[in-house]
Amino acid sequence: MTRYDSTRRAWEDIWDSASVEQELQTMTYARARETLDAYLPYLSKDEVILEAGSGLSAVILTLKRMGYKVMGLDYAVNALDISRRYDPALALVAGDVHHLPFAENSFGAYLSFGVFEHFESGMVVPLAESFRVLKPGGVLVLTIPYPNVVNQAVAWRRKQAGVSVLNDDDFYESTYTRDALTGAVTSAGYELVRVLPTSHSYTLWGVSALFRARGYYRTSALAEGLGTVLRAVLPWAFNFTTLVIARKPSKNS
User: Fold this and answer.
1) Are 220 and 208 within 8 A, CB to CB?
2) Per-residue pLDDT for 253 more than 80?
């Protein structure tokens, strides 16, 4: 079995052990609201929005309730089945972000939250596919884990111990520096709009129980307060993810 296949199966196991209600709850967390508030002004309610790697559909359910036209795609079919049981009216498609089952210039926006880092082959092909299916002037919204100081410390300890820097050899996950990420996005043909460090409190969640609150991946008040400080004074040292908002050039540009 390839690592691509084992990663997909790991996601199937993750979704089987979670619920739509839990995932929707995370959309109310401060870190999720921060990200949503950053990209929402760039979305149009007149265009269809694709979330590629939609999981249990928390994002598309949230956007649908806000009046946006949304569609979800995932390669974990069980996630789509669970989502449909929650809301049979959801527009969901089984598919691979490397080979999207859509025509060119189909969508007004393409959303990807924590997806491209799970491919050992990198993000060149899925970025090219996102560009292909977006209409001219369409918006890419992308988040990717950042190699923050905590992530680097863990990787260093694992390397010194002589083990793989991956948390699990059967589940691939990488990080991207700001330059590597923006370089990949612009190489795909996009024009950068915003690049933001986000989710500083969630970096702390993985450090100590002091930073965890009761609930599904909920951060404590201490983590939220310290995360706010870190976002102001050390934005690129402790951010958990980088948010990129980019645009496919219009035909007239």
Assistant:
1) no
2) no
The whole-angstrom separation of Cα 78 and Cα 84 is 10
**How are beta strands 92-94 and 69-74 bridged, if at all?**
parallel
- Rounded Cα distance between 43 and 51, Å, is 12
Residue 217 phi, psi (nearest 5) = 55, 35
**pLDDT at residue number 165:** 47
Chain-centroid distance of CA 134 in Å reads 18
Superfamily of structural domain 3-200+239-247: Vaccinia Virus protein VP39 (3.40.50.150)
Tokens describing residue 39? 């990209």
Residues 167-220: tens digit of each pLDDT = 566 778 889 999 999 999 999 999 999 999 999 999 998 888 999 999 999 999
* CA–CA dist 118, 113 (Å, integer): 11
Cα–Cα distance, 108 to 133 (Å, whole number)? 9
The per-residue pLDDT for range 56-73, each reduced to its tens digit, is: 999 999 999 999 999 999
Q: What three-state secondary structure class fits 208? A: coil
* d(C-alpha 135, C-alpha 180), whole Å: 25
**CA dist 37 to 26, 27, 80, 111, 240, Å?**
15, 11, 26, 14, 17
Domain boundaries, the chain: 3-200+239-247
Q: How far is 109 from 249, CA to CA, in rounded Å? A: 13
Start-end of H helices in 27-145: 30-39, 58-65, 77-86, 124-133
pLDDT value of position 221: 95
